[in-house]
């Protein structure tokens, strides 16, 4: 009998989690843990530890190998998300804009048709038959004609590929003509920002006349009048949001949204310049986040379900080793591996946050696809974001966590961060501990409900 | 240098001098630590790479000399860990890169 490498996390007074470095885990009592340390493991416990892959046997080794394959399978899939930025202009002036977008009246920040064509021709060199093209910016609707050009160009492109269209928009430039055109041309997947009620949203995302009312209007109208099924929302949390956890959840609920994704503001782009005004510590965010989760638990128990997405994502990871399903929550991360971002001038960056920093440029659309994604910068990103140059793989949460070189570089001036000072690291630790605690509390059933019917942990 | 730290402050000329043992911190580690602080200080790396390295830090904008020296020492540890971990995990990182290379360099 051979013990796998595992970490020990104390859940409560008499409950410990044993977690392997690919994320297989089980809970044991203090007595059971002591028996493992003394190598006096009873048969029943031995069986359980084998089934959870804490003990290595010839029987479970193939399954463990499969777990490793799953965890790193995104290395073999190619880029599945191409973020095309038709413009870097925007009509809003969000305090935390990581792209540090340009005012909408300025010239010289739009993708012209020639670059749009080259961008699509570049993407078409991908070996994949299926991928997502997502329009971002700036505000993509500020250059709607280029979006139309791209979609029409793709419609006639050969060989045929299966493109899933997506757009991230502040919705303030949306109108009936645009909504009709998007629906007709299968841009069904829309995402916008909803930072909370008006007093929070409009503070974070100022627009003359208010941006909150536009979002509220179009969230409803796009579904009711134009047949869009679901509009995704992201809630960026700033210092101003912190006292309003309850109100932010209620706003999402009142607008009929099934979930909330409270993303902590990150020190990049305009957010970095405004950090004194909008920034917070990891502890401050964690307190806020837990209030949001508790609020969502409470609503769900009362029969008005609202899912908090980060706790759900962690619970999904705890279910079992799966292939990476989110570019920012895998190791290596998805930068230059699962996604890439294309600027209006044809420059290509590792990811949507990476586009804010010249260090993360990996090429241009004038180069060959293979040259760009095997360039030193692209491969460096993969090596860096594997986090194997840090002490991450000595951390008990290593299987569930990930590392962002873009955030590290932006906030600490180095892609090799001082981990003890790294906000992402501190927030994630707090989140993993919290979800484990909830799994062994009265809120367990709510977490399972969020996971879906028939799911267990 | 005093027993509790590895630096000497020259207040009148506004710089701090650090003494670094090259058997503990390699030249690569020292350069990496220095690079992170380039925005905050003018830096000179000197001395004998076999016996003792000397790093001079002159702050650019009113940075406290002790703070600067402490920050440099923190980065030395940071990059020493990074170099050590990178050496240990070199093979697996190369495997990641090989796989990504294969995936993206299709014909």
Structure report:
The complex is a heterodimer of chains A (457) and B (107). In chain A, 39% of the residues lie in helices and 16% in strands. Chain A contains 18 helices and 18 strands. Chain A has helices at 30-37, 43-51, 61-71, 113-123, 144-155, 176-184, 198-204, 212-224, 245-254, 270-273, 275-278, 282-301, 309-319, 369-373, 376-385, 405-412, 423-439, 444-451, and strands spanning 2-3, 6-12, 15-20, 25-28, 55-56, 81-84, 89-90, 102-103, 130-135, 162-168, 189-193, 231-237, 259-260, 262-264, 307-308, 339-342, 347-349, 361-364. In chain A, the strands form 5 sheets. In chain A, strands 14-12-11-10-9-6-16-17-18 form a 9-stranded mixed β-sheet. Chain A has a 3-stranded antiparallel β-sheet with strand order 2-3-4. In chain A, strands 1-5 form a two-stranded antiparallel ribbon. Chain B has helices at 27-36, 65-88, 90-104, and strands at residues 7-10, 15-20, 41-48, 52-59. Chain B is built from 3 helices and 4 strands. The longest helix of chain B has 24 residues, at 65-88. The model of chain B has no long low-confidence stretch (mean pLDDT 90). By secondary structure, chain B is of the alpha+beta class. Helices cover 46% and strands 24% of the residues of chain B. Chain B has a single domain (7-104), classed as Gyrase A, domain 2 (2-Layer Sandwich), CATH 3.30.1360. The A-B interface holds A 72, 75-79, 127, 332, 337, 369-370, 373-374, 378-379, 382-383, 386, 388-391, 393, 412-414, 416-418 and B 32, 35-36, 39, 74-75, 78-79, 81-82, 85-86, 89, 92-93, 96-97, 99-106.
């Amino acid at each position: 009998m051979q013990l796998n490498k595992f970490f020990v996390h104390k859940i409560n007074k008499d409950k410990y989690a044993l977690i392997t470095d690919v994320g297989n885990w089980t809970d044991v009592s203090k007595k059971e843990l002591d028996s493992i340390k003394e190598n006096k493991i009873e048969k029943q416990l031995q069986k359980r530890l084998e089934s959870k892959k804490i003990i290595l046997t010839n029987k479970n080794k193939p399954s463990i190998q499969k777990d490793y394959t799953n965890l790193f399978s995104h290395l073999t899939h190619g880029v599945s998300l191409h973020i095309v930025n038709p413009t870097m202009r925007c009509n809003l002036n969000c305090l935390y804009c990581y792209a540090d977008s340009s005012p909408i009246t300025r010239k010289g920040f739009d993708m012209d048709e020639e670059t749009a064509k080259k961008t699509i021709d570049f993407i078409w060199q991908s070996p994949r038959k299926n991928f997502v093209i997502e329009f971002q910016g700036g505000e993509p609707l500020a250059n709607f004609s280029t979006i139309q050009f791209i979609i029409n160009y793709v419609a006639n492109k050969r060989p045929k590929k299966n493109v899933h269209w997506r757009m991230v928009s502040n919705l303030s430039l949306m109108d009936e003509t645009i909504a009709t055109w998007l629906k007709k041309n299968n841009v069904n997947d829309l995402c916008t920002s909803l930072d909370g009620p008006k007093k929070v949203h409009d503070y974070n995302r100022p627009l003359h006349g208010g941006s909150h009312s536009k979002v509220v209007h179009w969230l409803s109208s796009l579904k009711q009048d134009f047949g869009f099924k679901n509009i995704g929302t992201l809630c960026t949390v700033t210092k101003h949001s912190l006292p309003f956890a309850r109100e932010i959840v209620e706003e999402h609920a009142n607008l009929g949204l099934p979930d909330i994704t409270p993303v902590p503001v990150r020190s990049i782009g305009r957010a970095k310049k405004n950090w004194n005004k909008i920034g917070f510590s990891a502890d401050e965010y964690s307190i806020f986040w837990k209030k949001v989760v508790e609020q969502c638990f409470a609503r769900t128990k009362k029969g008005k379900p609202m899912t908090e997405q980060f706790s759900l994502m962690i619970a999904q990871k705890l279910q079992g080793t799966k292939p990476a399903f989110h570019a920012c929550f895998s190791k290596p991360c998805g930068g230059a591996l699962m996604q890439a971002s294309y600027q209006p001038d044809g420059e290509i960056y590792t990811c949507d946050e990476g586009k804010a920093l010249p260090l993360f440029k990996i090429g241009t659309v004038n180069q060959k696809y293979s040259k760009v994604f095997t360039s030193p910068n692209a491969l460096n990103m993969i090596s860096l974001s594997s986090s194997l140059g840090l002490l991450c793989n000595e951390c008990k949460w290593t299987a569930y966590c990930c590392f962002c070189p873009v955030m590290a570089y932006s906030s600490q001036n180095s892609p090799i961060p001082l981990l003890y000072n790294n906000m992402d690291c501190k927030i994630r630790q707090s989140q993993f501990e919290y979800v484990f605690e909830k799994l062994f509390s009265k809120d367990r059933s709510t977490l399972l409900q969020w996971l879906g019917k028939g799911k267990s942990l | 240098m005093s027993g509790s730290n590895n630096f000497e402050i020259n207040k009148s000329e506004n710089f701090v001098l650090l003494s670094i043992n090259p058997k503990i911190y390699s030249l690569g580690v020292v350069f990496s630590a220095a690079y992170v602080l380039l925005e905050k200080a003018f830096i000179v790396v000197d001395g004998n790479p076999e016996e003792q390295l000397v790093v001079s830090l002159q702050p650019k904008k009113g940075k406290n000399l002790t703070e600067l020296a402490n920050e440099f020492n923190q980065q030395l540890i940071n990059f020493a860990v990074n170099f050590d971990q990178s050496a240990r995990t070199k093979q697996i990182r190369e495997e990641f890169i090989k796989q990504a290379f294969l995936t993206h360099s299709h014909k």
